[in-house]
Amino acid sequence: MSKKMHINLTVNGEHHEFLAEPRELLIYTLRERLNITGPHIGCETSHCGACTVTLNGKSVKACTMFIAQADGAEITTIEGIGSPDNLHVLQRSFREHHGLQCGYCTPGMITRASKLLEENPNPTEEEVRFGMAGNMCRCTGYQNIVKSILAAASEMNAAKEAAE
Amino acid sequence: MIPASFDYHRPSDLEGVLALLKEHGDDARVIAGGHSLIPMMKLRMAEVPQLIDLQAIESLKGYSVNGSHVKIGAMVTQHELINSDELAAVAPILRETSLQIADPQVRYMGTVGGNVANGDPGNDMPGLMQCLDATLHLIGPNGTREVAAREYYEAAYVTAREEDEVLTAISFEAPKGGYAYEKQKRKIGDYATAAAAVTIQKDGGKVASASIAMTNLSDTPVWSEAAGNALVGTTCDAGAIKVAVAAMLDDIDPTEDNRGPVAFKKHVAGIILTRAITRAWERA
Ligand SMILES: Cc1cc2nc3c(=O)[nH]c(=O)nc-3n(C[C@H](O)[C@H](O)[C@H](O)COP(=O)(O)OP(=O)(O)OC[C@H]3O[C@@H](n4cnc5c(N)ncnc54)[C@H](O)[C@@H]3O)c2cc1C
Ligand code: FES
Ligand code: FES
Question: Number of structural domains, chain A?
Fold first, then answer.
């Protein structure tokens, strides 16, 4: 066993400090150490995107990052995007447009989609499909996921216009 | 999927990296985006007792464009390559290639340096860099040196880089004329079944010069000088493209794997190169 490292992490605005082996994968830190179980483990091999979080402004697969690399980082998970009493537009939109079935991929989908819409607030259908290509869903056939994201984008844009 | 344990280092300058490489020898390895190395470590196909993270080294970040001379720091990510309008204006083939690598999440992390240094025949940047006749800038205990991308790859994961050297940047003259990076993959996010990087310069309605490199069709990327030469002086008509494809097929050496048998890969390579040449010529 290698030396443990002193790790500092901010997750959903909350600061955490702990000792960990450098090889600990970020997804296990979140799920097992911090009990933040929104990010899921689908493949554990960097392919499915169920573990997607936002780390220092990037959409990242948390199964493909050592906790040592993430030391000092700011992370947002699905828990930081909305709550049951206060759903994010994307969460409402997935519910309304049937963007999920079993729901296993959904935290990763919505976390990735929130970053996509931040970078490109008015995407075409093709841009949504391309921007979501790192997230797999074995249930929906993607059609309604794309619909949900496009609907959320229009709603967010309309709200922005109304505010201006 | 837990890798063997390691000690982690995050030096803030290249001197620190070189000192650690010297101190730990074969036990040490650098990590950039980690999206080739971490999967290998998780599978325990790579064991790295001393892991040296390059993320804090400012001198490896960013790029410069001076006229047609482009220099890209090793830690520039594929995401940054795609989002740089300046790079896309001077060398649009960078964006075209990067968009065909992996998926968005991987591209936020994957670096051009890791992609080029790695020596995985599946990586897309090495073929591109051979097509562009790029220069790789290395630093090691004896100072800096330059290696041509066309001389760098020796076999799968075996390159001209010594174990105590770090790739700092990649530079090239922006290609003039038409360009294309064309890739056949089984699904989005997959490595190439076959891919081709092509640049073509046109003069008086004819091909003045052409450069062609192929990805994942041998244990290294393949720059096919003969295929490029076959186009020179022609109008890039179907006959000329056939000759170029035949020359390329002589230079590659694909092996059978889960992307298909040899005959299939050669077939796909021919189609992909034909498409790439056609697109590059249209843009020339
Ligand atoms: C799901 C998935 C799909 C992918 N699909 C593709 C694809 O289609 N095409 C493609 O090209 N790639 C693909 N990749 C690989 C991805 O692009 C990698 O991130 C990239 O190839 C390596 O870059 P990295 O920064 O992650 O390097 P790392 O994984 O950090 O390093 C890779 C190797 O290079 C060495 N290295 C890194 N930087 C340097 C340096 N500056 N000097 C010396 N040595 C260095 C490391 O020691 C290591 O041996 C895929 C990866 C995943 C996970
Ligand atoms: S669990 Fe991380 S990509 Fe599938
Ligand atoms: S809803 Fe079941 S995997 Fe996407």
Answer: 2
* CA distance linking residue A17 with residue B272, whole number of Å: 51
pLDDT tens, position by position, B29-81:
999 999 999 999 999 999 999 999 999 999 999 999 999 999 999 999 999 99
Residues 6+ apart with CB under 8 A from A91: A81, A82, A110
Q: Is residue B195 a contact partner of residue B183, using CB atoms and an 8 Å limit?
A: yes
> In chain A, how long is the greatest CA-to-CA distance?
57
Among the candidates A63, A80, A97, a domain finishes at A80
**Residue B202 is which amino acid?**
K
Q: How far apart are CA B1 and CA A158, in angstroms?
A: 45
Token duo for residue B186: 């089984």
Q: Are residues A111 and A73 in the same domain?
A: no
- Across the interface, do B7 and A59 touch by the CB < 8 Å criterion? no
Domain B58-173 CATH class label:
alpha beta
pTM over 0.90: yes
Q: What is the CATH number of the domain that holds A102?
A: 1.10.150.120
Please, which residues have CB within 8 angstroms of residue A24's CB and are 6 or more apart in sequence? A33, A66, A67
Query: In this predicted complex, what is the ipTM?
Result: 0.96
Interface of A with B in 108-137 (CB under 8 A): 112, 116, 130-134
Is there a contact between A46 and B31 if contact means CB atoms under 8 Å apart? no
B-chain CB neighbours of A23 within 8 Å are: 2-6, 41
